[in-house]
Specification:
Number of strands: 11
Mean pLDDT: 91
Keywords: ATP-binding, Kinase, Nucleotide-binding, Selenium, Transferase
Number of domains: 2
GO molecular function: ATP binding; selenide, water dikinase activity
Shape: globular
Radius of gyration: 20 Å
CATH architecture of the largest domain: Alpha-Beta Complex
Low-confidence stretches: 8-33
Strand order of the largest sheet: 7-9-6-10-8-11
Domain PurM-like C-terminal: 168-336
Largest sheet: 6 strands, mixed
CATH superfamily of the largest domain: PurM-like C-terminal domain
Pfam family, one: AIRS
Number of helices: 10
GO biological process, one term: selenocysteine biosynthetic process
Helix content: 25-40%
CATH class of the largest domain: Alpha Beta
């Protein structure tokens, strides 16, 4: 996990005053003869000045185990997830991707020959949709099936939004609904009577299957347009919402701000019926507390109050998907919190026959 790597690298830091520091200057751990990163360990991507010509390298990596049944969609989700970290820095044009793929030695030859090409194709198709391509990578065999990769963008300074400029009065916008972990788990529980018995009184099988389809659709969707519009509407900071949940990523972003601010979240947009499941499980997922893991989640964008509504409308116009103002930036000590009784926004608000959203 990213926080473990962070702690390990901090442990290596000794008297190097150009090291990681207090989180406010984003200086990375590296030899003094190398350029100092604009953003080092601890945020979504590293942003490193290249020694030639005023350019910057924006780079990130991610990988995980399969979480959906469809191998092709799994490949798309993995690719979208890798790209999301680069998009969170405002870098929209990705120059190259590497793919990391591990096939399981527990699979039969027929399973391997059927499943792995579909994962590869999904990953490649998503990269093509993003306007980039997979040029390299590595495949290995071990006990686990793993899929992920590396995204690399070489940028000029004005293509990057350094995520540190939130000011009091800004608002927080989220570009995808929460609840992917709950939806994926609930779908798996359809095959597990003990688990299904815990939630069948509050949700139908059809609703679970629809939530699963919505989660797959959301996870495979690129954050590229949301990233592009951050420039148009003068975003002050951004992160994507993944494994640490909404609150975890909000806290990490708040910690890196230059000004004495805190993030306060009032609204939680959640895939329809997933809040109900979470409550039925005694909040075991932490969904309403903002600690439920998300996979390939939305961008959490800090925007000037007067431009946030237009940002959301522009995403709706270009993509046909909603984005939501979920909180505000107040004066504080670089922390984030969710209010005691946040407003739950069901996404979509109404179920339409034959349509996901």
């Amino acid at each position: 996990p990213r926080d473990v790597l962070h702690r390990l690298l901090e442990g290596l830091q000794t008297a190097d005053k150009n090291g990681y520091g207090d989180g406010q200057h984003h200086q990375g751990l590296m030899l003094e003869s190398k350029p100092t990163p604009v953003v080092g360990i601890g945020l979504d991507s590293c942003v490193i000045p290249i020694r030639h010509g005023g350019l910057f390298l924006v780079q990130s990596t991610a990988f995980f185990y399969p979480l959906v049944d469809d191998p092709y969609v799994m490949g798309k989700i993995a690719c979208a997830n890798v790209l999301s970290d680069v998009y969170a820095m405002g870098a929209v044009e990705v120059d190259n991707m590497l793919m990391l793929l591990s096939t399981s030695n527990k699979m039969t030859e027929k399973e391997r020959d059927t499943i792995m090409p579909l994962i590869l194709q999904g990953f490649k198709d998503c990269a093509e949709e993003a306007g980039t391509a997979v040029q390299g990578g590595q495949t290995v065999i071990n006990p686990w099936l793993i899929v992920g990769g590396v995204a690399t963008s070489v940028c000029t300074q004005n293509e990057i939004i350094i995520p540190e400029n939130a000011i009091v009065g800004d608002v927080l916008v989220l570009t995808k609904p929460l609840g992917t972990q709950v939806a994926v788990n609930a779908h798996q529980w359809l095959e597990n009577p003990d688990r299904w018995n815990r939630i069948k009184s509050v949700i139908s099988e059809d609703d679970v299957r629809k939530a699963y389809q919505r989660a797959m659709n959301s996870m495979a969707r690129l954050n590229k347009i949301g990233a592009s519009l951050m420039h148009k509407y003068n975003a002050h900071a951004c992160t994507d919402v993944t494994g640490f949940g909404l609150l975890g990523h909000a806290q990490n972003l708040a910690k890196h701000q230059k000004h004495d601010v805190s993030f306060v979240i009032h609204n939680l947009p959640i895939i329809a019926k997933m809040a109900t499941i979470s409550k039925a499980c005694g909040n075991a997922f932490g969904l309403l507390q903002g600690t439920s893991s998300e996979t390939s989640g939305g961008l959490l964008v800090v925007l000037p109050r007067e431009q946030a509504a237009a940002y959301c409308k522009d995403i709706q116009a270009q993509e046909g998907y909603q984005a939501w103002i979920i909180g505000v930036v107040e004066k504080g000590g670089r922390t984030a919190k969710i209010i005691e009784k946040p407003r739950i926004i069901e996404v979509p608000a109404k179920d339409t026959e034959g349509e996901l959203w």
